[in-house]
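WARN retry 2 of 3 for item q-0093 after timeout on previous attempt; input resubmitted unchanged.
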Amino acid sequence: MRIEIINTGTELLLGSTANTHGTWMGQELVKLGLRVQRQVTVPDGVAINAALRESLTRSDAIIVTGGLGPTSDDITREALAEVLNVEMIEDEAALRSLHEFFEKRGKEMVPANLKQAQNLVGADILPNSNGTAPGIYAPPRLGGEPGCAVFLLPGPPRELYPMFHAEVTPRLRALAGVENIDEVQELKFVGVGESDFQDRLDAKLNAVPGLEVGYCARLGEMDLRLIGSDEAIAAGRKLAEEEFAEFLVSDDGLSLEAAVVRNLTSAGKTVATAESCTGGLITNRLTDVSGSSAVLGYGFVTYSNEAKMKLLGVPEKVLTDYGAVSEEVAAEMAHGARLASGADIAVSVTGIAGPTGGTEEKPVGRVCFGIATADSVQTHTENHPRNRIDFKMQVSQRALDLIRRAI
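OK item q-0093 returned
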């Protein structure tokens, strides 16, 4: 089934509001065995009419978000009526719901809200229990030949998501008639890139009958998407694990930090962090995960040499002899963090984020890592010559992966 999404709103193109609808609906539609074939974003105004006309020629269903409010720039329903050449009338049920909405809140409904009770002749009103803007469903018979179904949904997620589940999902199921839904599994890998998969695995994966393969690369990690029957996915996963098992972080959508927290919890272990160049980013990512308080008690941000000595016990002589960015200092930081916190594992990072501060011997992007357990302290050095923000993210990524491996 050919499904397109049209997101309306000038604020989306100005960047003042993040457009998250396509991501969310794409995930929900896959659960129904359906895919989004195209997504466009247009400003408020006549651009909506043009987008609708274009999408109607190649789609079986169109989902439009936004433009159903009471203000003058909310013209999505009017645009659809014009494109389909269908009259609009006041819907009694929608009008009654509007009055009830304001009465329950002890507010007076202004005349501008009356436009939200307008509906296309032959279309269905989609109730909105979370706001004043009802949705509209124009069935394929209104779209001419070949028929195309159109869903108009409110923009705010708190209104759109419940309406999508209650009103859009059952209608799409009936229209699509999908019986056998392909499974989807995403395997998250850290420390290996797209080129590695292309070189060692891509041809093998594409030789699996009935398996669709996709990749999504991010900073320091890569997702391998497998779509197909249970048997095809199992075959694809086996191939991936044969080549890259040590880099596999999760198979259920968990982020690296969430996987680390889960693994620490399962192992009954705790962790501490000692950060210099990342400024607390490693700790922040861990504490973004619910349940992290059970495995993380201490996070040291020791940006200065004084802090490294005072909080982590790094000897002044080590700092003087080797410099703050050295494996010797990273080892002392990790060891000191583990002793001070009593954690089972401690990770440390010290580096040069740039763009200033580098030397020929220690260039911008140099970073030293330490990982301490009860048995040993291990260190190594890497170079990540990136902009400051990406450098910090990449270093935090590698530090979290060191914790994962230590577990």
